[in-house]
């Protein structure tokens, strides 16, 4: 097993130290996930249970096919903000009656399931994934609507959630609402705009305005049941298509609705005859250096996440242009039988050769309709007089052009560094990969903390010299330390994931499973590569 080569002038960190560092990061990740799972805390969880209700994740578990996986999305949404980690909603992809569905479940233990600004962003991202990959959506509804103190950040953009439901229906992508409790104000439009609606008797309450608001607006006296109870909506208003006797019955009905969707994937699933990876995924913990300036060989990652050669499958990874632009590894492989083209950073920096190689490879993938997998570990495009004169700008632009206009599905995994325009060329969040997941070792920013602080210091020093003033070295040291600490904190995966700049921070050992689910989901929607790219500066 290779553990990478140390950069000149540095010593390689022993593999055990790498493992220990990664295990520490994974322990911290588990603690943050536990905060999301805890919802509103023990007090509110106990109160919810005393009402005879299931928790959001329990509802999801009962909805899914037994033994199937659930790929949770954005579990750390809102991390580092004033709101609960997880943003009062659980989103993810799971299999219901053999159909891959997007599942959105309000967590009523967090402020009654009220939506914060991060809830809106998280649900928007789930809706985008459902739209791009043609997934039916099942909403498990119990929400008091918008968190009113935050309404200024929710009301205007939040309307897009309801627009998305109607657009999904128009695109023949079914939407299903299982209503377990309150669905008030704007939240009433979730069942109102869904294709199928199931309400729990004596549990669901769906109205635009509850009894207090109706009293204030019209002077009318009313009660929850007559105003918006499940039985009224099933018998009188017609909003409820199915009346469930309890929560378990609502989930049973929801599963039967999915079973009757006559759902078919656009692309045929690969034959389940693939070989497991040639190398043990457990060894991924030994690969990532503690110091991301130390390079590692991404081929070692590929050997642990992609299908192996087996006895009859030939070569596991067919590398493309291995001797040209060696700082970027490109080639063809399969993951759970799905063909992929891989672009993986090797030595961190992208030069002109790597950029041109990437652009050509992306064109080839589009020519044969094969999805692309980007494995990030880059400090960006090379700078300096020699490289500027050699055309690094136009060559980097060529790579970014190819990524921007490619129409095959893209998946990104941020393993290590993802700095500067290298993040763009490797299909970062701004370039709309179908999925983007992060390892706990990853960092992403406009540049490294020391570099950014150093640039600011040089600029300040030059300004002082231009004015003929003495430069305050002590203040400079303090500024550099402050900037370095700030950039370091804001480039770490929890911070980035909390802002939904990825779809989740994952254990490296789970990468193959996550990719397998993502590639299977992608097969729900038709896709085709393009031969139309922007102008390449040659």
Summarize the structure in words.
The strands form 3 sheets. Strands 1, 2, 3, 4, 5, 6, 7 and 8 form an 8-stranded mixed beta sheet that branches. Strands 9, 10, 11, 13, 15, 16 and 17 form a 7-stranded mixed beta sheet that branches. β3, α4 (117-133) and β4 form a beta-alpha-beta unit. This protein is an alpha/beta fold. The protein contains 19 helices and 17 strands. The longest helix is centred in the first third of the chain and has 23 residues, at 15-37.
Short description:
This protein is of the alpha/beta class and 538 residues long. The protein has helices spanning 15-37, 42-50, 56-63, 117-133, 151-170, 189-192, 211-218, 224-228, 230-237, 247-259, 298-305, 352-367, 385-389, 392-405, 420-425, 449-466, 473-490, 493-498, 511-522, and strands at residues 70-73, 89-96, 99-106, 137-143, 175-184, 196-200, 205-207, 242-244, 318-320, 328-335, 338-345, 349-350, 372-378, 380-381, 410-419, 435-438, 443-445. Helix content is 41%, strand content 18%.
Please specify the SSE layout and strand pairing.
Layout: H1 15-37, H2 42-50, H3 56-63, E1 70-73, E2 89-96, E3 99-106, H4 117-133, E4 137-143, H5 151-170, E5 175-184, H6 189-192, E6 196-200, E7 205-207, H7 211-218, H8 224-228, H9 230-237, E8 242-244, H10 247-259, H11 298-305, E9 318-320, E10 328-335, E11 338-345, E12 349-350, H12 352-367, E13 372-378, E14 380-381, H13 385-389, H14 392-405, E15 410-419, H15 420-425, E16 435-438, E17 443-445, H16 449-466, H17 473-490, H18 493-498, H19 511-522
Helix pairs in contact: 4-5, 12-14, 16-17
